[in-house]
Write a structure and sequence with these properties.
Strand order of the largest sheet of chain A: 1-2
Number of helices of chain B: 4
Distance between the termini of chain A: 44 Å
Mean pLDDT of chain B: 85
Helix content of chain B: over 70%
Oligomer: heterodimer
Number of strands of chain B: 0
Structural class of chain A: mainly alpha
Radius of gyration of chain B: 66 Å
Strand content of chain B: under 5%
Distance between the termini of chain B: 173 Å
Number of helices of chain A: 6
Largest interface: A-B, 52 and 36 residues
Largest sheet of chain B: none
């Protein structure tokens, strides 16, 4: 599988790639599921509404424990969406047909797909990068909301620890430099880390399954694929959880005031 | 896979070219993500979290009401026991009063009966005395008449009214004596 998503067709000037197609399918599926589950919301839930409540309440309780009851109201929609969307995208990539149906050419070892019709949405840096960028923008908003503009700048650059006198003058440039490093971390390291971690895990998992499929000839290749298939099921959840929890942890550290133990 | 990477490295593409990152695709994926975020927030999180909050509120209210009902029940039970105890006391008091009243009434009726009986006895005694007097008077008159008749027959003479009266009076005196 190539490192980049391949275009399948164009909508106007926009080339639609196989990972975009999967992202749209997953998004449409989620929207349909939510519409069906919350069409008639009842106080005594049943069926799909019960399942959706279980997911939403579980995530809300988890995030409330990390971020706190006040800020969870603002951050929950993004955090929960990131988890659900990443999880659905990851698991959808395990549906048989992904990476095996598409355009290719005949080789000595059989037909080789070079342009799959469907590619896991998170095996595309554009997708993971979009989520990381969205988080970075929202993180800035929450940071300013928590501290105010002046407070945020003070939180970043001002000396901490209640020092006075000459030592304070010495430490001001040090803390200013630390603040610059923090800015680099916020706007470059963290988004890049979130982007590449998710992309790398999903892309590697897909390549692993692809490699296992050709270790022995089909249909016996299912035996070599099966353990890794289950591994990828776990990786799908873990990576969704890691992305969400990292976002929650970065946010918690940002909104925490100095007297609370930052 | 490896040849592809090698091929791309041969042309020494940058990070963005190697991973297919470009603005149109990036913005398209960003929009997809934002649409999902909007829809889930609008149609899932808000209604479900509101519902969960509403349910939590109702459960809390129900529990508070249940606690209130429990307290009211305990109070009602206490009040009921107090009412029963008061009613028992009142009933006992009424029974005692009724018993005392009955005793009083019975005594009164007994006194009346005694008085009535005594009155009847007195009347009977009076009547008996009158009968006795009347019989005694009749006896005197009869004895007097018999004495006069016997005296007239024994003496063989006709007695005058004065003689007759004198004999009757003497006879009466002797009878009384």
């Amino acid at each position: 599988m190539p490192t980049f998503a391949e275009p399948l067709f164009h909508i106007g000037p926009l080339p639609v790639t196989n990972s975009m197609l999967v992202a749209w399918i997953v998004a449409a599926g989620l929207i349909a599921l939510v519409q069906l589950g919350t069409r008639k919301v009842q106080l005594l839930p049943g069926g799909l509404q019960n399942f959706l409540e279980f997911v939403v309440e579980g995530l809300h309780d988890l995030l409330e424990g990390i971020i706190g009851p006040d800020f969870v109201k603002r951050t929950f929609p993004f955090m929960a969406t990131v988890f659900i969307f990443i999880l659905c995208c990851n698991w959808s990539g395990l549906i048989p047909g992904f990476a095996t149906i598409g355009w290719g050419h005949a080789t000595e070892h059989g037909f080789k797909v070079t342009t799959p019709l469907l590619r896991p949405a998170n095996a595309d840096v554009n997708m993971t990068g979009a989520m990381a960028l969205t988080f970075t923008v929202l993180w800035c908003v929450w940071y300013v909301q928590a501290h105010g503009v002046g407070g945020a700048l003070k939180h970043l650059f001002a000396p901490k620890g209640g020092m006075h006198g000459a030592i304070l003058l010495v430490l001001v440039p040090v803390f200013a430099f630390v603040g610059l490093l923090e800015l680099v971390s916020i706007f470059f390291v963290r988004p890049l880390g979130l982007t590449i971690r998710l992309f790398g895990n999903i892309y590697a998992g897909d390549n692993l399954l692809e490699a296992m499929a050709v270790v022995i000839p089909p249909p016996f290749s299912a035996l070599t694929m099966l353990p890794f298939y289950f591994l990828e099921l776990i990786v799908g959840v873990v990576q969704a959880l890691v992305f969400m929890l990292l976002c929650a942890a970065f946010t918690t550290a940002a909104i925490m005031h100095e007297e609370e133990g930052h | 896979m490896i040849p592809i990477i090698l091929a791309t490295q041969t042309h020494a593409p940058g990070f963005f070219e190697q991973f297919g990152v470009d603005w149109p695709h990036f913005i398209a994926q960003l929009l997809t993500m934002l649409v999902v975020l909007y829809v889930l927030n609008r149609y899932a999180y808000k209604p479900l979290l509101d519902l969960l909050e509403e349910r939590r509120r109702r459960i809390a209210e129900s529990m508070a009401q249940a606690e209130q009902v429990k307290q009211e029940l305990a109070k009602a039970q206490e009040a009921r026991e107090k009412i029963i105890a008061d009613a028992g006391k009142q009933a006992q008091q009424l029974i005692d009063e009724a018993r005392a009243a009955a005793q009083r009434q019975g005594d009164q009726q007994l006194q009346q009966a005694i008085a009535q009986a005594e009155a009847l006895i007195a009347k009977a005694r009076e009547a008996t005395d009158l009968d006795r007097q009347r019989m005694l008077t009749e006896l005197k008159r009869e004895v007097g008449r018999l004495v006069v008749e016997t005296t007239a027959k024994v003496t063989g003479k006709v007695l005058t009214p004065d003689d007759q009266r004198r004999l009757a009076e003497e006879t009466s005196k002797q009878l009384v004596a």
